[in-house]
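Lecture 7, part 2: worked example. A protein chain together with magnesium ion.
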Amino acid sequence: MAFEGLTERLQKAMTNLRRKGKVSESDLRQTMREIRLALLEADVNFTVVKDFVKTVRERALGAKVLEGLNPAQQIVKIVNEELTKTMGETAVPLNKSPKIPTVIMMAGLQGAGKTTTVGKLALKLKNEQKARPLMIAADVYRPAAIEQLQQVGQQIDVPVFELGTDVDPVEIVRQGMQQAQENHNDYVFIDTAGRLQIDEQLMNELANIKDVAHPDEILLVIDAMTGQNAVNTAEGFDTKLDVTGVILTKLDGDTRGGAALSIRAVTGKPIKFIGQGEKMTDLDVFHPDRMADRILGMGDMMTLIEKAQKQFDEKQAEEMNLKIQENTFDFNDFIDQLDQVDKMGNMEDIMKMIPGVANNPAMKNFTMDPKDIAHVRAIVYSMTKQEKADPDILNPSRRRRIAAGSGRPIHEVNRMIKQFNQTKKMMNQMSKGNFAGMEGLMGGNGGGFGGKMQQMAMKRMVRQTKKKKKKKLAKALRRRKR
Ligand SMILES: Nc1nc2c(ncn2[C@@H]2O[C@H](COP(=O)(O)OP(=O)(O)O)[C@@H](O)[C@H]2O)c(=O)[nH]1
Ligand SMILES: [Mg+2]
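Predicted complex, written out as structure tokens:
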């Protein structure tokens, strides 16, 4: 899992602090030492670490945090905010040309993920803006590079322009641009060659392509696993090409975090997207605040919610919200949700995005057995219509019948119903903005560091979604009355 070591060490440093109640200057110094080491070990750039530690310390001392209430908590907040700032504060959208086509050129070392990311980004634009992209195959050196892009193109149904491997890449790009003009493509992606290391010849070729294509966006694709080296690479490319943004790939692997935390601060160029898997849909907008939460082990609740929202259609989501608010969520809805979750993908990945679940030692060996889900379904399917719609009537004799019908032991039926009721209660409380009942349900470390972090993340999440939700809810209610 990405950031595992860093998260563990940062959490430990801050839990130690929290245990103290009062925080002395020397406690602060000790904590900052631990944070500094944690960052250096995660391969964060030395200068970035130095600045980071200095800023956090100054803020902690300057605001008289140590004399105030909950100093440890305040320091956690400062660390979170400064991590966010280091990574760029807010998400930066893709540049767009006022006149079509918007030209996006890729650059990066061999194997960084350029070709894959071209496909991911083209698919994203297709899905989100009904874009009609053209992809230009300008890597003529790597064997099978063109076929690879063509395969990607077939997969996402986007055309590829290519002239084989015997034509100069600059000429390929020139003709590709012409074709895009003729076909009125609104986006052009240029998939370029990489080398194992930066070299003069490659840089010149890329500079020449840039001159021909006048890209609106030059995206440097960086493999997050390469840590500190990534920063040197980025500087090399940037000096020659003046890149406009960075895409960090392979954040699904066990990167230590160095690249994510250093690139922005060192190059001044925003990270625009992150690649989190090999599938064409595994590309996400980079949100510095969410990444800071993730690094601090607070999970990435917003991305999870967005993933869920994409699966639900609007109307369904409204209905579900209503049911949760009115506490009429029943087993039919439960099965609906299971179906939705199935569509969202790998359950383990999803679980890990939930605050308190990510980096929770108890979850280290977490696996969600598809069999368990099948059992849950079997139990629900053995309920009568009436039972599904009104779970309160599930008395012992009904439960025994369900157990027999589903072939599951009675204790499993009881446990499942209990969990259902707990979840229902929790969702209802959350929808009212009440977190008091939640801590026990999530990880059970209510008073500890983790519990507070969960609360912070949850509160922020609700603040952000509340307004939208209120509007939606009112609309849905009105519609219902009609
Ligand atoms: N796990 C993971 N693998 C990736 C990601 N992005 C790219 N890859 C893989 O990295 C390898 C090199 O990617 P490719 O697009 O060919 O790199 P290029 O040489 O820069 O064009 C391929 O096996 C990709 O599937 C990512 O975000 N996560
Ligand atoms: Mg490639």
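The two ends are 50 Å apart (CA to CA). Residues 65 and 71 are 5 Å apart (CA to CA). Keep this in mind for problem set question 3.
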